[in-house]
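ARCHIVE CARD
SHELF: 3
SLOT: left
DATA:
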Amino acid sequence: MADLPPPETLAAEFDCLMARAGIRVPGTRRAAALASYADLRGQLAMLHCRYSAANEPSNVFRLSPMEAK
């Protein structure tokens, strides 16, 4: 997993983002939400380092099978 900041820094970042979004996380759920945030942040860092923007598809297509007549 990608390097994460120290736990205190990560908690402060989480609190700042929640405050900016106007989300109040109850104290009983803060530890679980913070753990989820740390995991998501690590996963996003791995995804962004994997490919350059040139490798991203410009369009996404969904092809549905044709119904039989």
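SLOT: right
DATA:
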Amino acid sequence: MKKVLFLVLVLLVGLTSQTALADAPDDVDQIQLRDPLELERAAMQYMLAFEAYVTTRRSKDPNVRSKMVKMMQEYRNAYARFLEMLREDKLYAPNKPKDPAGWYDEKHKKIKGYKREWKKTDAKELRAEVKEMVKNGATPEEIKAFIQAKLPTAPMSIDPGIYTTTTSASAFPLPTQTVPAQGTIPTPTQTVPAP
């Protein structure tokens, strides 16, 4: 469990150590920058599926434990999809330091001039809900549907180079012009000549 959370946190939080960056691949140009939402969703799905599997495995209830094989399959499938994304994007190689967020940031910095701000997410509340569902005897299909429904729909991380600004109408009042009602003739204004 700790190993899984560490890998997910390394990806999502962007924890980078000097040694990992020193050993980072020289071919940063080969790294692909996938939409961060895809990576975050895959990581969260994997993490929550692992939580369901571990809770099932630790259960003393025979009805819950009978679902362990299916829970393990869901966890392994989610993990395989997550690793496949990392490998496709050249963010993971078994013989290199495990720092996908750091490598993603290096490529992001090379392209945009700054790193992405990864938000820490341990999905504590969602993990607790998954545990509770397992303990209450939910089927693997119900848990999978719950996980799918709870995956983020917007990136949890921030691209600091994209800023949106809004201005209040009261901050910069625009001159108003009254328009006469239809059918009326506006009254002329007199100007007084200067003496």
